[in-house]
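Chapter review: from sequence to fold.
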Amino acid sequence: MKKKPNLSFWKLWNLSFGFFGVQIAYALQSANISRIFATLGADPHSLSYFWILPPLMGILVQPIVGTLSDKTWTRFGRRIPYLFVGAAAAVLVMCLLPNAGSLGLAVGAAMTFGLVALMFLDTSINMAMQPFKMLVGDMVNEEQKAKAYSIQSFLCNAGSIVGFIFPFFFTWIGIKNYAEKGVVPDSVIWSFYIGAAILILCVLYTTSKVKEWTPEEYKEYNPVAEENESKADWFTLLKKAPSTFWTVGLVQFFSWAAMLYMWNYTTGAIAEVVWNTTDASSPAFQEAGNWVGILFAVQAVGSVLWALVLPQFRNTKVAYSLSLVLGAIGFCLVPFIHDQYLQFLPFLLIGCGWAAMLAMPFTFVTNALQGYGHMGAYLGLFNGTICIPQIAAALLGGVILAAVGSQQSTMMIVAGCSFLIASLCVFFIKGK
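The token string follows.
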């Protein structure tokens, strides 16, 4: 078995650069979906149900993409064809989704259109996102894997910052941030248009710069028996998965449940706490929606800065757990800060938890999977540890919101408690 060669910084960079564009699309979705559906007329207690579709499509699409791409060999590559098709579909849907309220449809029909568009958007984003993780698993050796995922984390956060600030930026340059009741403002619509253009350009860059290994080269660096690669089904793979797969998954469950509540309820929480409004049709609510994009960008900046600190820790589990504790403190501070600029502090702390969530789980799991084969299928299945907690949290969101007094700001404390549980679960992980 040949050792995978060390790759230069720029080869590692090119391997993940398209992730920048994909993450802009994902950031626009995560920061604006609640805002869009609230603008269309959704009740806050049912708002979490709209968030079931994104993780549901992720849990369906990513294992399929992983399994199929394990067996796909074309002159364009093994993973790249799925990346390109997913990105092209995402571009189309990004141009449709924010126009749900502009087509003259009744409220119910507009929300149905938005739901269908959201389903296709998340399907295509998941299809485009998963190949980047697989490319690192395929082509990067164990020593460089943490570095490769750190680059991916940096690009992820950089793309997030761009996507998050777009509505605020377009409002600042004079594009309207308020529209008639039930219509999404032009600042959000143009954010999706420009995000779609950047996405396809970034993916074209990666597909032109990255040359995947041929089947023969792949076998030299990844010596897995043909029959082992072809016969195992998903249930067999899960039965044979290393314990690290499951213990990291436990941490993921409570981490991603918290993040769903952040994406779902932050717009309403900031509108309540800072702008003193719960009226989704008001200009104040739309202003709060823009500011949430800025706060999410601050979170991404905090994540980038903390990602530089994480490698300095000698004990990775301590670093992982501490990051989640800092994120929990950030969540719990949100309801008690009434100044829009002081809200930067809690979101910087949340960024510490997010940095660890982006880099560490895949480092633990891909190292544990060496020699197991089916890397794409396993990473697709591991995506279930991201999707299942979000589905569970979305189903319970309305019930929990009612239980905490129907205040969306209190859901930030719920998210903080979930992060604290995740931080304790870190110490169940066995592995380097």
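Two observations follow directly from the output. The radius of gyration is 21 Å. Residues 317 and 426 are 6 Å apart (CA to CA).
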